[in-house]
Amino acid sequence: MDAHMLNQILEIAFQKKVSDLHFEVDNPPFFRGRGQLIRAKMPNLTPKDTEFIATRVLEHNGRQLNSDLKEFDASYSIPSGGRFRVSIFRQRGHIGIVMRVIPPHIGTFQELNLPPILADIAHAPNGLILVTGPTGNGKSTTLASMLRYINENHCYNIITIEDPIEFLFTSQKSCIIQREVGIDTENFNAALKAALRMDPDVIMVGEMRDRDTIDACIKAAETGHLVLSTLHTLGAVSTINRVVGHFPPESQEIIRQRMADILVATVSLRLIKDKSGENVLPVVEVMRATTTIQACIREGRLDEIEKHIENGSSQYHMQTLDQHLLQLYRQDMISMEDAKRITNSMDFERKLMFDN
């Protein structure tokens, strides 16, 4: 492995529009395309090969590879302009690397097949917007699309705090400041405290990982800022439970009240193959914090929220995961088999029969 070969592999990833690359000892490189891992027709990687790749990435970020390094997240770019989010780790005593391809273009809601209601949500003057879903299901891309929309339509000061920086923004109507944890700031919590002294209108936090960061995000939203962030949760109810669960039992009622006051919306994503198998589509649950849903959050009646999302589809343009799946299925864009893989199949089929 040398720099030229590494760049060639990364260029191929961009040309083939894969989502991830895997470099592990005793295996050839793997590409993830259309949701499937594809083994490259190359020799198995040696420990020196993966150490070389890790060293290149670390040097790109002003760091050095040493025996103390166990995990490290970073960004990496190649001469052609391609960018990657990189996770370096150790497994069985060797270095491994997974690289996520960052698309060069920040898509619009329409280009990404996202619900148009996201534009209304992004117009919120303050509060908390959470984009959620499993790893690799489009959270960062959706968040970037929302920031693009804000950047094009509002004269705001936008501060992003990321680990690492993924999409690169150019200021348009708004001024955008992008800070990377580990390079521009020590951690999310410190950067959030500093951001409040930087005349922000909008603060984007790459991920709410711990209680201190969650509390700082809530405080920023309470003081009149629009805060956007992500969580690895599957839907609105699990998102609220996750946020509240980070706090001790004696504080959870207060946290529910605070969340009810500042939550604008949750947007929860899953990806599904279209019927051709050539593309993936987002399946999106959208919950907006109506007065009814605010009351459910305050009073801990979270089990009622999904029904209110279903009932609010026409007036508030909310939708459950199943409602969006049904819409995509009726439009002949996805198969029943693929739909069942990401939902409660019995409930989904019942809703389909009832709807017909």
Question: Could you describe the 3D structure shown?
Answer:
By secondary structure, the protein is α/β, with parallel strands linked by helices. The protein has two domains: 3-102, Beta-Lactamase (2-Layer Sandwich), CATH 3.30.450; 117-355, P-loop containing nucleotide triphosphate hydrolases (Rossmann fold). Helix content is 38%, strand content 24%. The chain has 14 helices and 13 strands. The chain has helices at residues 3-15, 47-60, 117-122, 139-153, 188-195, 211-222, 236-245, 252-262, 291-299, 305-311, 313-316, 321-330, 336-341, 345-355; strands at residues 20-23, 30-33, 36-39, 71-77, 83-91, 94-102, 127-132, 157-162, 175-180, 202-205, 226-231, 263-273, 280-288. It has a seven-stranded mixed β-sheet with strand order 9-8-10-11-7-12-13, with helices on both faces. Strands 3-2-1-6-5-4 form a six-stranded antiparallel β-sheet, with helices on one face. Strand 4 and strand 5 form a beta hairpin. Helix 5 runs parallel beside helix 6 (211-222). It is globular. It starts with a helix and ends with a helix.
Structural class computed from helices and strand pairing: alpha/beta
Number of helices: 14
Give the DSSP E fraction (strand runs of 2 or more residues).
15-25%
User: Architecture of the largest domain, according to CATH?
Assistant: 3-Layer(aba) Sandwich
- Into how many domains do the coordinates divide? 2
CATH topology of the largest domain: Rossmann fold
- The count of DSSP E runs of length 2 or more, i.e. the number of strands, is 13
Mean pLDDT: 93
Largest sheet: 7 strands, mixed
The separation of the N and C termini measures: 58 Å
- Low-pLDDT stretches are none
Task: Spell out the helices and strands N to C.
Answer: HEEEHEEEHEHEEHEHEHHEEHHHHHH
The geometry reads as globular
- State the CATH superfamily name of the largest domain: P-loop containing nucleotide triphosphate hydrolases
Rg is: 21 Å
